[in-house]
Amino acid sequence: MRLSIGQVHRNVLALASSRSCFVLGDRLSFRMLSQPRAAGFHQTAWRGGQIVEDRGGPLTLASLEVQNRVEYGNKEKMARSGGPKQSLRGSSSLKVKPSVSSLNVKPVKTALPKSAGIKKTLKVDEALFSAKSFEELGLPPLLVDQLNKEGLTAPTEVQSAAIPIIAQKHDVVIQSYTGSGKTLAYLLPILSEIGPLKRPMGQDNSDKRSGIEAVIVAPSRELGMQIVREVEKILGPNDKRLVQQLVGGANRSRQEEALKKNKPIIVVGTPGRISEISAAGKLHTHGCRFLVLDEVDQLLSFNYREDMHRILEHVGRKSGTTSRDILGPLARRSERQTILVSATIPFSVIRAARSWGHDPVLIRAKSVVPLDSIAVPRPSLSQTDANSSSPSNSVNQAAVGSLPPSLEHYYCTAKAQHKVDTLRRCIHALEAQTVIAFMNNTKPLKDVVFKLEARGIKATELHGDLGKLARSTVLKKFKDGEYRVLVTNELSARGLDVPECDLVVNLDLPTDSTHYAHRAGRTGRLGRKGIVVTICEENEAFVVRKMRKQLAVPIKPCEFTEGELVVHREEDVE
Ligand SMILES: Nc1ncnc2c1ncn2[C@@H]1O[C@H](COP(=O)(O)OP(=O)(O)OP(=O)(O)O)[C@@H](O)[C@H]1O
Questions:
Q1: Ligand 1: which of 526, 528, 532 to mutate, judged by most atoms within 8 Å of the beta carbon?
Q2: Which of 460, 427, 430, 436 has its CA nearest to residue 446?
Q3: Where is the region Disordered (predicted)?
């Protein structure tokens, strides 16, 4: 069942850079979506919000404060962490003294700003959000069997929300915190429609499709390969050739040969490589039904604009149609379903999704909202000085809610030359077993590895200057527990799934709170415990405190002495 969409008055298919994001298209007005009648959907109410100009600050969905909570009845609420409870391998041994923190730390006040406009709410059947099994979500039996074989028996919250909505053919934006299972949230509805595990076709609905039916784009090779492995796992060993990786750094002719020989139905790759092979005429995606942009806010940044433009123009677009097609942009859009995914969604992504989307909706763990109902957030005073060197104190709405609730955040100060020693003490005090330490540049990584090794801690480095093989070997060894610490840069901040990671350390300050959120999200995956420690210099501590406000999470001051984590009162350090 589909929501009807209003008339598009204007669609400018132009690459317009807006701060870090480019926006394809814009439109002046949309009629409110009609009430969907599909099971589980009930439009409840909307209140018109004030539309104001996007001034380019950290404007995001949450800043709209759309009242999009699902209204629960008396039934038990799902745990915020979502998803099935798992054993806390590795993380359970983390040594934290909660009594210390609860006694000594003053709670941080993190008030959200006033709403810029509250609009329409869709009420989604509570049963979907509390689905106990994949069957309840209507996945085909073969797919459910395969998931069960892999030990996946219950959907996470975001999967419960996304699977039925994507099955209804909506274009969607999925925003849910790191490690909440977003990958399967989009893969499962896709694999319900294509490939050997899909739902049986009706008699008059014979499946005549062939060729590539889904294109998944990710910003890094590591994330691309991780998604490939996830698809392979579900397809099983006999059908794993149906997914093909097209990531940069690997041999391109081999990828092209594999495309010809294996005839995959899904390709997963990085923007550069996908658009390169497409431009060479070796990747035929015009009949493609699904386009997924994983880590969409990064993919729509200026760096990728040309490759992403090509991908957006070609995937799922019948050849011969042009942007001036007489059928208009909506008809062209409907040829593919577009799925945009990230833990952090700035408003520029919403705007782009509205422009491309066919009945686009925003899916979060407990809510589904038509994108049309989201008003442009009102810029706060401090957002207008977003370019100033001092970070704003206002909440970064793109990143609020992007962090798993199970995370604990601390910061401590140390002189630059003592940071590695502080890291060592931190690892020992917390008894962390699988640690990711982030720095901002590539060069110093080796030095930190050397110093850690000299102190008896097995460590390795991961960065973009390593070849593809070296990168995957390092990652595999780290995941296998051969190294205790992975010292890395921003390359590993997004999407990397090392479930055992129990500690993330910032040895350099992340550039902003969005970067903090993605780095932090490498631990505390799927409801596990995780600790994030930022080691900064004394004169940088104010930046951490500002990030704390922007993210609306407590980041507590601490130190590591005599093998213990000691948490300070805030007033002792301010
Ligand atoms: N229903 C499920 N049951 C058990 N494990 C699951 C389920 N769904 C996902 N997982 C596992 O949870 C982990 C995190 O999932 P995933 O990488 O998709 O998170 P994410 O939300 O995309 O995180 P990020 O924002 O960091 O990219 C993975 O190891 C995945 O295999």
A1: 526
A2: 460
A3: 74-93
